Structure formats: structure tokens, C-alpha cells
Amino acid sequence: MTAAPVETSPKSSSERGKLARARLLRSLLPALSLVLVLLAIAWLNPRAISYFGFSLMLNLAIPIALATIAQMFVIAGNELDLSIGTFVGFVGCVTATWLKDAPLVGVVILLASIGVYALLGALIYLRNLPSIVVTLGMSFVWQGLAILILPKPGGKAPDWLLSLMAFKPPFVPFPIIAALLIAAVVYFGLMRTSYGVILRGSGGNAAALERAGWSLLRTKIVLFALAGLFGVLSGMALIGITTSADANIGNGYTLLSIAGVILGGGEFVGGRVSPIGAVIGALTLALAASPLLTFMHIPPDWQVAANGAILIIVLAARVLISRRER
Amino acid sequence: MPEASADIVRLDGAEKHFGAVRALAGVDFHVGAGECVGLVGHNGAGKSTLMHMVAGTLVPDSGRIAVRGGIEDNYSVPRAQQLGIRCVFQELSLCPNLSVAENTRINHPALSGFGWRRKAADLIAAKLDEIFPGHSISASDIASDLSIGRRQMVEVARAFTVTQDPLELVILDEPTSSLDAHTAGQLLAFVRRFVASGKSCILISHLLGEVLHNADRIVVMRDGKVVASDAAKAFDRDRLVTTMGGAEAREKIAAEIATQKPETGPLRVRARPARQEDGNELVAHAGEIIGLAGLAGHGQTDLLLAIFAAAARSKTGIEVTAPVALVAGDRQSDGIFAQWSIAQNIGIRSLARLRNGLLISPQREAELATFWQKKIGIRTPDMNNNIFSLSGGNQQKVLFARALGSDAKIVLMDDPMRGVDIGTKLEVYDLVREEASRGRTFLWYTTETEELDNCHHIYVFKNGRIVANLRRDELTEQKIIQSSFGDAA
To answer: Which CATH class is domain B3-244?
Structure first.
């Protein structure tokens, strides 16, 4: 072999710069879609762009954002959680009953449910089961438990939770502050800490991680436990807003949370997720879900379908950009 | 000098079975301090299995492993790391979604706490500078954005970084398979410096010259056993090849090709690279083997893919007159259907012929598979096994069988011999020449100059353009290097 300098191999630094720009564009896409939805709302109803307008419109964004983060942790490990919606409903029922009447029992139940999530992670890893099947089964378990606790809509949120969710800080509406806080905490935890790298690496190349001596069982358990934790937070936030519970209250959250992660720039496999994007995706979905459509005078009967159409458009735009990245 | 205490690692009677396949049959192996051991053998000879044991990723079925004279009963990856034994595996083991610095963190539990990102970035950047000066890799680059060669550079550099655990022995499994000559030279020079400082290294390579020049001692494996272990000086190329049980030497091929003057058959391919400004173009006739040379990634693969696309839908500047098949170079991502059996992987290019009514005939599929198993010697007890039950070289043979078993008259080869042992290579070379003499056309992109000996005609690429056009008798390595580095015409 003869030695000779090589400066022009493939993917030179300029080409990598192009890739980095494409990735930046993709990471800006969630923010762009949010801005687009906001502009549309401002155009249709300028009065909505105000402190109270945002407080009202983004009210339900907090639980959706928390559920999306929960889903994101599962997706970061190349799995999918189809039970997060009914789990949020179950947590809501516990919050509106046990947590108010017997706080200690309520706390124990909620902690135990996080433990169940951790065990699911262990089961999925140890038995090499498809997470879709396991969590689909669990979704019926959570739903059944929720109905057992609260056969009819009712219950009442604990007072401290009500006052927390009704908090009105000056100048900036509470949902926006909450969203920023959630995004910042999870971004730091997953993207900046040294163990966050291991968690994301388990989705990127599990075999490499194992060879480096890390326990994949542990990463799976941690990811699922975090999903359980954020699912609990989501259910509690939801009940703090709605004040009472219903066993079916969270059912729509499963697909909303998956859509939020993908809308936020995440991918189903490969450990590529973005906490900030996921929160923005959740906000976009919350705004596009009903305020925008109501302002557009779309009858409620058609809103769900219109919602789906918006999702398809945004995701299609994302695919176009991703393709340019290749 | 008492030999036992100077050994970094010693295996006695190591055995390993995978189902019915015996991968290792009682191997004794040791590496001394300050020694570079070259390990050679065909694919499937048991080299990788042996190295997995040294690295702690596989536990031997029987036998003992001792590190620095102490017997290790519960040997594992973390234990190996504590003892200072690292391994760069043949398959790339970076997390594609993480940055270079983050990938470094994965191998160093000590990189944590406040400021770990800075520390990890500095650590890997310093090591890259030391091993590959002028590398142009940034610690913040995402691994999937890097070319396969740069990923390999990162992986090698990562293995040599040190935090809290000591560093005694690094196993390099085909470390240069994706590197070009220059960076490979940088790496091997670094390995020599590393060994000179009293550390140890195991070098596995299919490039025999690399092993002969850089190892102190060479261990040859065949069929799961060590068949020879001697000072590197005691070996030369021919003795190595004979010990490995390789086929005849390459001089014979060169002579054969040189005497063979193929009559010019009908035109098969005429193609102009998209960035070509002058009139140079690639022309291939039936029965010709055309080499695409030059430095890695200078448009050879792009042209092959363009020809492949032009076969399905006509394209300006490219003329293709017969069916085409492609043998992928990056077999894990572009070649193999991971969930399928060996037979299904062979049959996929020939489905039209295997059809019986609307369905695929399992019988015809099996016939095709068995025919090619015999013809190119795919080593497996059952062609219905999953493709991953095969070693890397045998997987590559499957991809050849897929292309050669099809109706394609033109076979495009995208550096397909990456990381394939010399025995398999020589077998495939024979096959290619045989098929060419029957009228098939081969377009062969290769990064190994030796392989160009098999070609009738060579085009040298630079920056996406053809810069030289050589007949076989004009070919010298000097000429290729000259054209690769000279100013583009």
C-alpha cells in the first residue's frame, strides 16, 4: 500500500455541513408548524392572541405535553406504548378518588403503577416481546381498573391540584411556563446528562452498548419507568384542569402522544427523539385540535377528520425534508 | 524472562459451539506485553469468536482464560475493561444517533458528572489528532453523518482513549477495511508506536501485507484451530497463504488475464459520469471485466448506481443494453434481507424464474440455492438457516450467488470484497473470470489495487470524473496513484 494524503473523501466537511443544516431545518419544522397554526388563529380571531386566549386555548396542552414526553421515552428505546391513553385515564380516576379521600393510599397506588411500567420494560426486554402487543394488552387492563375505580364519571380533584393548575402568573400564561419547564427539564435529563446518552444509545445501537458493558435491561426499565412517571403527571394535570374524572378521559392520548413525538421530529426507531420538539408538537396538536378548527367554523362533527388532515400535511412536510437529508 | 508473567492474556483449550457448528476446537492463544500479534485465517476460521472471548463478549464452553497470570473465572466485558482489554469489532459499533463525543462516553463510565461533554470531546479529539493527523472530524459530528471510513477512524481512536481504567491490549478486527491507504498507514504507524511503548495489540486483517509488516508474531487459524504460530519474520506471503489453506497465488491470475485477449463482444454499457466535462466515458463490452479505481468515494459508486438505474429507466448519457444486477459493498445495509433464509436471499433477484403460477416454488428456490451453495462453497449445514448464521465472507458469497444466479448479463460490484478473507476472494475472482469468459460483463469498483489485476480495463476516478483510462498491460499501482492525486483534467 502506498501512502498519500486524502482530503477529498466522501462526506467532506462541507457535505457534513449540508447534512447538519438539513437536520437543523428538520428540528425547526415543529416550531414552524406551531407558528403557522398560531398565525392562522391570529388571522381568524385576533382576540385569541392574548393572555386569557392562550390560557384557555392551551389549557389542555399540559397533560398532552406530559403524555407526549412519556411516549417519547418509550420511543427513544425503539418501543411503542399503546397503553398511555388508558393509563392517563386510570391515573385520572385514582387522582379524583383515592388521592383526594386517602392521599397516602393514592400516592402508593400511583407509585405502584410506575413500578408496573418498569416491570413491563423488564418483561419486554427479558422475554423479547413486541412492546406493541404488551402495551395493547395493558391498555385494556388500565381501562378495566379505571372503570372499577370510577364506574360513572365523577370524583373530584384534590384542592392543592386544582389551585396549582389554576395558577395565574403575571404576563405569561401558565400553560406556556409549564411547557417551557417540561421541555427544559427533559431536554437536560435526556440530551445533556451522561446517562441520557446511554438511554438514547440503547435505541441507536443496542449491541454496541451491550459490548461496552451497559445493562440493556436497566435502560429499558428506566425508560419505561420514566414513561410511567410522566403518564402519572399527565393524568394528574388533566384532572387538575377538568376537576373531575371519567374512565375514558384519556383514551385519545395514545395516538395524540405518538403524533406529538413524530411531529416534534422524533423517529420510531434509532433513538432519534427531541424533547423540545415533542413539547412543541404537543402544543401544535392541542391548538390545531379544537381552537383553530372552531375559529374556522368547522362543525364539531368534522373536527376529528380535519385534525387528521392537519397531521398528515405536517408529517408529509417532514418526510420531504428528511428525504433531502439523505 | 518467565513467559507466564509477561503474558497479558492467555487462553488454554478454549472451545465454543454454536448449535451444531464448532467455532473453536480447543485453542491455546496468548499475547505478551509489548507484542503485536497478527491473526489471520479464512472467514469462519474462528478468529472473531476467539477475539470475542478475549474481549469478554463470549464465554468459552470449556477452557481457561487468564489475564496477567491470574485465572479469570467470571470474565465479562466490564472485567475486561477493568483489566485494560479493549476491542474494535469488525461490524461498526457506534450509535448512529449520537455525536462522536457521546459515543466516546459510552465506552467510559468515568465520563460523567459536571462538564463530561467537554471532557469527552477533548479526549476523543486529542486521540484522533494523535492517530490521524488532519482527520477533519469534529467531536460534535453525529455518527450517521460521517462516511464509513471516518466512522471507523472514530471507533479506532475511541478504543485507544484512556480514563480511569488502564489500557493494556487493543484488539483491532479488520481496522483498515474501510480506510484508504493513507489513513490505514497512519493507523498502522500508530499501532507500532503503541506497541513500542510496551502495550499489546492483536491485529486481524485480510490484507496479508499489513500483517506481515506490522505484527511481531503471526498466528494462523483454520477450522477453529490454531495451525501455526511463529515470528512474523518466519513468514512470507506464500507461506501464509499455504498455511491458511488458501488457493493458488495471484501471479497465476495476472498471467492468465494478460494472455487472455477477449474478442470485443457486443456493447453492453456506455456511461458518462454526471460530472464529466470532457469526452471521457466508460465503455464495457460483453465478456469484459472493467475496473473502477481511484480513492474511496470519488464517484465510482455513484456511477454504478446510475448505471443500475439506467437499466430500468433510460437516462441521458448512459446506455445499457442488458439486464443488470448489483453486488452491494455495504452488505448489512444494502445487501442482506436480515429476516430471510440463505436460500431466499439468493432467490430474490430471480423471482420471475422461480415462480409457479402466482406463487414462488420452494422446490425451484431450493434447487437454485443448492446449485450455488455447491458452486461457490457457502459453508452452512442448511440453506434454510437465517442469513446471519453465516460468517461475513459467506454472507458476501450469498450476494454474489444472488447476482450470478440471475439473468443479469451485466454485474455491477460496489467494492464487494471489503473485509473478506483471501481464500474467499480468490474463489470469487476465479468465478468472476469464468463468468466473464462466458460473456458476462463485470463493472468492478474496488479499493484494493490487487483486485485490479483481474480486470481487462481500468478507469481511474477523481472527484466524480474519469481521469485515466488504462488497459491491463498499462496498469501499475504508480499510475493509479498518480491519476488519483494529479490535478483533474
So the answer is: alpha beta
**Residue B220 β-bridge partners:** B40, B228
**What is the nearest CA distance from B244 to chain A, expressed in angstroms?**
22
CA dihedral A160, A161, A165, A168 (to 10 degrees): 0
Q: Which residues fall within 8 angstroms of residue A121, CB to CB, at 6 or more apart?
A: A77, A220, A221, A222, A223, A224, A225
| Number of residues assigned to chain B | 489
The alpha carbon of residue B190 and the mean position of all alpha carbons in its chain are separated, in whole angstroms, by 21
- With beta carbons under 8 A apart, name residues in chain A contacting B136: 7, 12-13
Q: Express each pLDDT in B391-425 by its tens digit.
A: 777 888 898 899 988 888 899 998 888 767 777 78
Q: Where in chain B is the domain with CATH 3.40.50.300?
A: 3-244, 250-485
Around Cβ B319, how many Cβ atoms within 10 Å?
17
Q: Is the pTM of this model over 0.90?
A: no
Per the CB < 8 A criterion, the answer to whether B404 and B373 are in contact is no
Which tens digits make up the pLDDT trace of A46-65? Answer: 888 888 888 888 888 999 99
CATH classification code of B250-485: 3.40.50.300
Distance from CA of B219 to the nearest CA of A (A): 22
Structural domains of chain A in order of their starting residue, each with its CATH number: 34-41+48-325 (1.10.3470)
Record: contact A211-B150, CB cut-off 8 A: no
Biggest CA–CA distance in chain A, Å, is: 80
The three cell numbers of residue B248 are: 493458488
Q: Choose between B473 and A209: higher pLDDT.
A: A209
